[in-house]
Each structure stands twice: as structure tokens, then as C-alpha cells.
UniProtKB/TrEMBL annotation:
Pfam families, A to Z: BPD_transp_1
PROSITE patterns named among the record's database cross-references: ABC_TM1
GO CC list: plasma membrane
Family stated for the protein in its record: Belongs to the binding-protein-dependent transport system permease family.
Name of the protein this chain belongs to: Polysaccharide ABC transporter ATP-binding protein
Keyword Transmembrane: yes
Cellular location(s): Cell membrane
UniProt record, GO biological process: transmembrane transport
Cross-referenced CDD domains: TM_PBP2
Length: 338
């Protein structure tokens, strides 16, 4: 009776007695309410961090988001002499030209072929090199190899193409060596049949070291106790790599793969435009070089803007789709679900 009076005074009902034991159920503890911090308090608390990131935000807005307003010329017959306000509005005519232009479709085909080839023969190489370096016990040897492999990342594409020209060109080192031994040489730099292999070799030599750093950073988070526990359980080196190392690298691999898919329509403007004249338009023309020549060289600004906008939209769809697929498999992807 005293319990009933107390519960009535508090405005709650007493727990129902169990039909078997006669005892009442223990109520679950109430979760404390989450107090939302006011925006003014959060701004005051994080003002140092906000001030630090402010220059980067300003640069991003000025050089990335403000130029997006220029995409309005994709729906105009734009002329730099009349400007945005006085150019003739043509609706979706430029986009119709994009999808019916055979040269643009050929550029899209070359872009997809290069992307697929490099996704198979270039993307796994930094992963394999990171696994090899991670197995090296001497930190000095690991640091030396990593520095040598990473050094070409700082070279410009002009220097990279020049080095490959001196090695694989018609008068390069390889051909001179073959001729000295009575063999016929070959010019890899001007051969359309080997152009796909050539640009993949250049990309591997220049950018594989950058991927190694990212994957080694992921491997550094793996606790040595995991390897010791696997070794105690009888796992050999390959088992430890399969069950400990690769699962630790999986989130980073998926993240970079998503970003690579989003960047699949951008396969290296500088690298390809430097070698476009040597091997021909049929194999070296990609979306970026096509847009450059149509918009800048031939002054067809509206058509080039429409083609570039189509490329951007498709890249965005690829990123969102790959990120959604990563969520289906339980990975965070580029961003986590709310």
C-alpha cells in the first residue's frame, strides 16, 4: 500500500507482478537526455580550429565553388565579347551535341579503356609494395626504399615524359643497346599499340610511392599483439597477412578505390597532352584533352562546358554509387551514414 501511494505521488504506475513468481519486473534505467550545445558556445569553444581552417575554406570557395557559376554557359551560345548576361540562351542544344558527337564518344571510350587498364595493373601495385616493405624488419632499409620509390612523385610530367623518351625513345638507351648487339630497335614513345602500357608504366613510376605511404600508415595501426596471437595459433606468414594485415588495409583500400572510381574520367591531362601528338588522337584523346581543344583552342566555350559538366555529373554518380555499395558491405566509405 505504501508502494502504491508512492508511485501515485510520482505520477507513475507500479510494475505489474509476474504471474508465476508474483514479483514485479525491474524497469529499465532511463537514458539521460542529451543536452544540445548552443551554436554560439561551440563556435567559441572551437574558434582556434576554425581560424586555422578559414584560409583553406576561402581558397576552396574562391577557386572551386565560385567558378561553378560559369557552368551557365553550357545552356548558352557563349561569346566572351558579349558575356554571360547577353549571350543567347540555347537550352539543351549543347548537351545534344555532346551525346551525338562521335569524337567525344571516342574520347569517352579511350578514357574508360585507360581507367580500366590502370585499375587492374596500377592500383594493386602500391598495396603489394606496402606489404613487402612492411615485412622488412630493418627500419633503415624500409625508410631508404620508401624514399627512393616516393621521390618521382615530386617530378613534373614534363620531366617524367622526358626521362622515358631518353630510355624508350627511338634514340633512347634501350634502342642504342639493342642496335649495339645487332638487334632491331623499337620506338615505344610513338607506337600507338604500346601507348596504354607506356602511360601505365609512367603512372606506376611516378605515383606508386604516394600510395605506399597511405597503406603503410594503415598498417602502422595494427597492434603487434595480433601478429603474435596469430603466430601462437600456428598461422604462418601468409595466414597472418591474409587474416591480420589485409583486414587492416581493407577500409583504406575501399576508400581509395571509391575515389579512384570518382576520378575515373580524369586520367591525367598533362601526361596525355604531352604525348598526344606523338601517338595520335585515336589512342591519346581523352575527355579532358578533348574539352581543352574544343573550348580553349577552337573557342567553342559552350560545347566544352557542356562536355565538362557531363563528366562532372557522371563522376559524382560514380562516387555516390560506390560509396553506397561500400555501406552495403559494412564499410564506412568516403563518409559514414547518419
Amino acid at each position: 500500500m505504501a508502494l502504491d501511494a508512492l508511485t501515485r505521488r510520482r505520477g507513475t504506475s507500479a510494475p505489474a507482478p509476474d504471474p508465476v513468481t508474483g514479483a514485479g519486473d525491474t524497469p529499465a534505467p532511463a537514458r539521460p537526455p542529451v543536452r544540445k550545445i548552443p551554436l554560439r558556445t561551440r563556435l567559441k569553444r572551437d574558434r582556434s580550429l576554425l581560424i586555422m581552417v578559414l584560409p583553406a575554406v576561402v581558397l576552396l570557395v574562391v577557386f572551386a565553388y565560385v567558378p561553378m557559376l560559369g557552368n551557365v554557359i553550357a545552356w548558352q551560345q557563349y561569346s566572351p565579347y558579349t558575356g554571360f548576361l547577353h549571350s543567347t540562351y540555347v537550352g539543351w542544344a549543347n548537351f545534344e551535341r555532346v551525346f551525338t558527337n562521335p569524337l567525344f564518344l571516342d574520347a569517352v571510350g579511350n578514357t574508360l579503356v585507360i581507367t580500366a587498364f590502370q585499375l587492374v595493373f596500377f592500383f594493386p601495385i602500391p598495396i603489394l609494395l606496402a606489404l613487402l616493405l612492411n615485412s622488412v624488419l630493418s627500419p633503415r632499409v624500409r625508410t631508404t626504399i620508401q624514399s627512393i620509390v616516393y621521390l618521382p612523385h615530386f617530378f613534373s610530367w614534363v620531366l617524367v615524359v622526358t626521362i622515358f623518351q631518353q630510355i624508350f625513345g627511338g634514340a633512347g638507351l634501350v634502342n642504342q643497346t639493342l642496335r649495339d648487339h645487332g638487334l632491331s630497335g623499337f620506338d615505344m614513345m610513338t607506337n600507338p599499340d604500346t601507348f596504354l602500357v607506356l602511360i601505365t608504366m609512367q603512372s606506376v613510376w611516378k605515383d606508386a610511392g604516394w600510395g605506399i605511404i597511405i597503406f603503410l600508415a594503415a598498417l602502422s595501426t595494427v597492434s603487434p599483439e595480433h601478429y603474435e596471437a596469430a603466430a601462437v595459433d600456428g598461422a604462418n606468414r601468409w595466414r597472418r597477412m591474409w587474416h591480420v594485415t589485409l583486414p587492416a588495409m581493407r577500409p583504406v583500400i575501399i576508400l581509395l578505390l571509391i575515389l579512384r572510381l570518382g576520378d575515373s574520367l580524369t586520367v591525367g591531362f598533362e601526361q596525355l597532352i604531352l604525348q598526344r601528338a606523338a601517338v595520335g588522337v585515336d589512342v591519346a584523346e581523352v575527355i579532358d584533352t578533348y574539352v581543352y581543344y574544343q573550348g580553349v583552342v577552337y573557342a567553342d566555350w559552350s560545347f566544352a562546358a557542356a562536355a565538362g559538366l557531363v563528366k562532372g555529373v557522371v563522376s559524382l554518380v560514380l562516387v555516390l554509387g560506390a560509396n553506397k555499395l561500400a555501406h552495403v558491405f559494412g564499410e564506412a566509405g568516403v563518409y559514414k551514414r547518419a
